[in-house]
Amino acid sequence: MLYLTRKAGESVIIDDKIEIVVVEVRGKTIKLGFTFPEGVSVLRRELHERIRAERQVRTDD
User: Fold this and answer.
1) Is residue 1 in some structural domain?
2) In this structure, what DSSP letter does residue 22 have?
3) DSSP string, 20-36
4) How many domains is the chain built from?
5) pLDDT tens, position by position, 3-27
6) How big is the CA angle at 50 (ends 43 and 40), to the nearest 5 degrees?
7) Residue 3 vs residues 10, 23, 34: alpha-carbon distances, Å
8) How far apart are CA 1 and CA 19, in angstroms?
9) Domain membership flag for residue 44
10) 22: closest CA among 4, 42, 1, 7?
């Protein structure tokens, strides 16, 4: 895992295609902005895990 320190307004570029910008910092909460190519799926981890679990249940039937 890569750890970075970024301030509001600073960003990270991944593979020349995805940009993650720190939009706002409030206490222990940060707001991120994402720019990425059309067709790329971006999900919160908890939602991704729920979808994976539901798919697993269907394939087990």
Assistant:
1) no
2) E
3) EEEEEEETTEEEEEEE-
4) 1
5) 999 999 999 999 999 999 999 999 9
6) 25
7) 14, 18, 18
8) 18
9) yes
10) 7
Terminal alpha carbon distance of the chain? 35
Instruction: Indicate the average pLDDT of the chain.
Output: 94
- Lookup: tokens for 18: 């995805």
Asked if residue 20 is part of any domain, the answer here is yes
Rounded to whole angstroms, how far apart are CA atoms 9 and 23?
6
Q: What is the pTM of this model?
A: 0.77
Residue 3 lies in a domain: no
Report the pLDDT value the prediction gives residue 27, as an integer from 0 to 100.
94
Q: What is the domain range of residue 54? A: 11-60
Rounded Cα distance between 35 and 29, Å, is 20
Q: Could you tell me which of 35, 36, 33 has the C-alpha nearest to residue 23?
A: 33
